[in-house]
Amino acid sequence: MPYEPGSPQCRILIDCKSQIESMLLNLQRIENSDHISDQLRSVHLQLEGLHTLHRRQPVLSND
After folding, report:
1. Contacting residues for 24 by C-beta, under 8 A, at least 6 apart
2. In the chain, where the domains are located
3. Is 53 within 8 Å of 6 (Cβ atoms)?
4. Who's near 13: CB < 8 A, 6+ residues apart?
5. What is the DSSP string of 9-41?
6. In a structure prediction context, what are the per-residue pLDDT tens digits for the chain, which is 63 residues long?
7. Is 40 within 8 Å of 23 (Cβ atoms)?
8. Taking the model in full, what pTM does it have?
9. Degrees to nearest 5, angle at CA 1 with 13 and 55
């Protein structure tokens, strides 16, 4: 079952991480791209940290 994001911010973070994963796959085909790949992995980890923070925030309802 696919993960259902809890907020628009989570959806944005999931999309950004997915785009970076795609870039990393494409960069594997280009020589001398290791430094760029390392930077993208670092950004991916930072986005994952932000995503973890957003998942921990309680969902406020307007009931």
Report:
1. 37, 40, 41, 44
2. 8-56
3. no
4. 47, 50, 51, 54
5. HHHHHHHHHHHHHHHHHHHTTSTT-HHHHHHHH
6. 355 557 888 899 999 999 999 999 999 999 999 999 999 999 999 999 999 988 887 655 554
7. yes
8. 0.77
9. 35
